[in-house]
Write a structure and sequence with these properties.
InterPro entries: Transposase_11 (IPR002559)
Low-confidence stretches: none
Shape: globular
GO molecular function: DNA binding; transposase activity
Strand order of the largest sheet: 1-2
Organism: Mesorhizobium waimense
Order of helices and strands: EEHEHEHHHH
CATH topology: Nucleotidyltransferase, domain 5
Distance between the termini: 32 Å
Mean pLDDT: 90
Protein name: Transposase
Number of domains: 1
Number of strands: 4
GO biological process, one term: DNA transposition
CATH architecture: 2-Layer Sandwich
Radius of gyration: 15 Å
Length: 128
């Protein structure tokens, strides 16, 4: 089995919160617990997070929506392309996280120990 890591970072690319999901689950399933109770002005995400429920939740919060749209969307939302360029911060975080072989190889047997090592690796990344 594989494991997906859904992560929320701040404007500097530092880890705020993450959720572990089974590899075969849709990314949209983990968004609600990921953003629950967190105040933010906008969400920058890729096409995997293009869901009507996520967009409705973000509209209720008054957050700016910067999500790349699927081509099958009937009424595409406007995309701020200059702001979308900042999505590289989350990509950079995952690249730094995968420098830790134990995370890249999913060496831990339990989700609890895997999550603990992700927290430890994020602390090391932030201290650099």
């Amino acid at each position: 089995m594989t494991t997906k890591i859904l992560a929320l970072t701040d404007a500097l690319g530092n880890l705020v919160r993450f959720v572990l999901l089974p590899g075969q689950r849709f990314d949209t399933v983990g968004v609600a617990p990921l953003i629950d109770g967190v105040c933010f002005g906008g969400l920058i995400a890729d096409k995997a997070f293009d869901s009507n429920t996520i967009i409705a939740d973000l509209n209720e919060r008054g957050a700016k929506i910067v999500i790349s749209q699927h081509s099958r969307r009937t009424f595409p939302l406007p995309l701020d392309k200059e702001l979308y360029k900042w999505r590289h911060l989350i990509e950079n975080f995952f690249c730094k996280l995968k420098e830790f072989k134990r995370i890249a190889m999913r060496a831990d047997k339990t989700d609890q120990s895997f999550a603990a090592f992700i927290n430890l690796a994020a602390a090391v990344i932030n201290s650099r």
